[in-house]
UniProtKB/TrEMBL annotation:
Signal peptide span: none
Subcellular location: Membrane
GO terms, biological process: amino acid transport
Compositionally biased tracts (Polar residues): 1-25
SUPFAM superfamilies the UniProt entry points to: SNF-like (SSF161070)
Disulfide-linked positions: C158-C167
Binding of Na(+), residues: G52, A54, V55, N59
Biological source species: Albula glossodonta (roundjaw bonefish)
GO molecular-function term, one example from the UniProt record: metal ion binding
One Gene Ontology CC term in the entry: neuron projection
Protein name per the record: Transporter
Bias (Basic and acidic residues) ranges: 286-295
Transmembrane segments: 46-64, 76-97, 118-146, 209-226, 238-255
Main location: membrane
Length: 313
């Protein structure tokens, strides 16, 4: 006769050994996992962030110069080809990696190939370097914005303390004598007031720090810090301004430029195809198009979390 523990409830199944029916009726353990990774709040936050990555200062002040110097409208052919077969696939690959792994630029490589984790460190270092000169340019723009509140724009005349005898003002004049030594008021404002290059004898003597530019740069880095303070939670809100306001300003400038006398002659001269540029030896248009296509995707960034992240829980 078997002995039964009186303290055990009648009809209960012990955990040792299989039961008479051959099934374990203990409930499976419930595993809960808290996903603390960043998610986009809205689809528009993600879309505007991607637009902000793809369209930056390089597309505004670098692309027109590159296009004009390399054949005008003819340059658009290699540029579009490089964008289709180079830029877009690489950008889509970043979105796919961000959607699948949802992790940072460094830690993502342990899921792909750990030996390549140095690429993640390189992305972070290059992004740091790029942020230096991009934010410096924005600091210059902030200084220009501050200077524009004067009664007379300082870069439109030659009556300022930093101007030289070579300064030649051609605003509102029909007959202007221009020599090889002539400088425009805008050029002297940039070189002698903003940068104060004339106070430096060369790279060995870079001169002192301009406190005005240092203050502008500090304000820019402060804005960047608070924009990224809580990851995509805050940056997703900031891009509503940073990704839309430039298009509004560019549209206003487009309307203003298109209504100026001779505007369309300038556009035709700018975009007139120069097919011989495509056949020149040396650095070809394809190389320059490829360089600008990759440059327009800087600063390097970690794989961008894709749309599905905003609904993942």
């Amino acid at each position: 006769m078997s002995h039964q523990d009186p303290s055990a409830p009648t009809g209960s199944l012990t955990a040792q050994g299989p039961s008479n029916s051959g099934y374990n009726t203990n409930p499976p353990p419930v595993i809960t996992q808290t996903d603390s990774r960043d998610k986009w709040s809205k689809k528009m936050d993600f879309l505007l962030s991607v637009i902000g990555f793809a369209v930056d200062l390089g597309n505004v002040w670098r692309f027109p110069y590159i296009c004009y110097q390399n054949g005008g409208g003819a340059f658009l052919i290699p540029y579009i080809l490089m964008a289709i077969f180079g830029g877009v696939p690489l950008f889509y690959m970043e979105l796919a990696l961000g959607q699948f792994h949802r992790t940072g630029a460094i830690s993502i490589w342990k899921h792909i190939c750990p030996i390549f984790k140095g690429i993640g460190f390189a992305i972070c270092v290059i992004a740091l370097y790029v942020s230096f000169y991009y934010n410096t340019i924005i600091a210059w723009a902030l200084y220009y914005f501050y200077s524009s509140f004067s009664s007379t724009l300082p870069w439109t005349n030659c009556d300022n303390p930093w101007n030289t005898p070579n300064c030649t003002n051609y605003f509102g004049k029909n007959n202007v004598t221009w020599t090889n030594f002539s400088k425009s008021p805008a050029e002297e404002f940039y070189t002698r007031n903003v940068l104060e290059i004339h106070k430096s004898s060369g790279l060995r003597n870079v001169g002192g720090v301009r406190w005005q530019l240092m203050l502008c740069l500090f304000l820019i880095f402060t804005i960047v810090y608070f924009s990224l303070w809580k990851g995509v939670k805050t940056s997703g809100k900031v891009v509503w301004v940073t990704a839309t306001l430039p298009y509004v300003v560019l549209f206003i400038l487009l309307i203003r430029g298109a209504t100026l006398p001779g505007a369309w002659r300038g556009v035709a001269f700018y975009l007139k195809p120069q097919w011989d540029k495509l056949l020149e030896t040396g650095v070809s248009d394809s190389d320059r198009a490829s360089n600008h296509e990759h440059f327009s995707q800087t600063p390097p960034r970690p794989p961008t979390p894709a749309l599905q992240d905003q609904s993942a829980g």
